[in-house]
Amino acid sequence: MGELYVINALAIMIFMVILFIVAQIMKDNSIVDIGWGIGFVIIAIVSFLYRDGYEPRQLVMLLLVTIWGLRLAIHLWIRAIGRGEDFRYANFRKAWGKNARMIAFFRVFMMQGLFMILLAYPIMAVNADQTDNSLDVWAWAGMMIWIIGLLFQIIGDYQLKRFKKTRPNKEAVLKSGLWRYTRHPNYFGEATMWWGIFLIVLPIHLGWISVLSALFMNLLLVKVSGVPFLDKRYAGNADYAQYKRETNRFIPWFPKNASNE
Questions:
Q1: CA-to-CA distance for 200 and 137, rounded, in angstroms?
Q2: What is this structure's pTM?
Q3: Given this model, what pLDDT does residue 234 score?
Q4: What angle do CA 58, 60, 63 make, to 5 degrees?
Q5: b/e map of 48-85 (b: 16 or more CB within 10 Å)?
Q6: HSE (CB half, 13 Å, CA atoms) of 7?
Q7: What average pLDDT does this structure show over 172-199?
Q8: Rounded distance, CA 128 to CA 200, Å?
Q9: Which is deepest, 94, 142, 148, 228, by most CB within 10 Å?
Q10: Of 187, 215, 213, the residue nearest 201 (C-alpha)
């Protein structure tokens, strides 16, 4: 397991350095978001090839991570076409001034690479385990939960994309579909997929440690890189303020009646 961690850490470091160089040429650090999903696909492939012989559980892990990672990367790439650098990274660039390039290398690219390695424990653990890894009830339950998460992410992204094409103005807020029950269905879907991966890995040796990966992903989405940025972006928007009062932040639930609060 230790050797596999080192191999993957080196692979991700090389990938992130290449991504950083491309970002400097393009003057767009936001391409690091596209590299997020691709990095996990790299880890999944490297880990799968590391193992001698393949069991169903390893094949399932490779398939699920590849589908998630490539879908996310393609979605973000299509969304970024013609938009320039994302506002978050543009603000970072301004705030960091003349040291922006060096700070971005460590605080954006290398830190994201570190997060990948920390989160990828279940991917590496299932491939490092040399015992019989036929599919059991945990694996099937995990796959079902993962599919639910994928559907939340795909449908949420599609509904948002369609809304942006028809909204009356840029300040309008999507309040229908899955967005009626959670302010971030796409992020909830991503978190749910990682809980599914946790269940798939749970029966193997030390598989329970994967709960830390699922919790860490939830923390990143809710407290660090996902929800907070959007809440900050729409600060001061009266329509969004009402939407926040009526709609659960993360876990889907029926809307509250804001008029009764």
A1: 9
A2: 0.90
A3: 80
A4: 110
A5: beebeeebebbebbbebbbebbeebbebbeebbeeeeb
A6: 16
A7: 95
A8: 14
A9: 142
A10: 213
**77, amino acid identity:** W
The mean predicted confidence, pLDDT, of the chain is 92
For 131, phi and psi rounded to 5 degrees?
-85, 175
d(CA 46, CA 8): 7
Q: Please spell the DSSP secondary structure of the chain, one letter per residue.
A: -HHHHHHHHHHHHHHHHHHHHHHHHHT-TTHHHHHHHHHHHHHHHHHHHHSSS--HHHHHHHHHHHHHHHHHHHHHHHHHTTT-S-HHHHHHHHHHGGGHHHHHIIIIIIHHHHHHHHHTHHHHHHHH--S-----HHHHHHHHHHHHHHHHHHHHHHHHHHHHHH-SSTT----SGGGGT-S-HHHHHHHHHHHHHHHHHTTSTTGGGGHHHHHHHHHIIIIISSHHHHHHHTTT-HHHHHHHHHS-SSS--PPP-GGG-
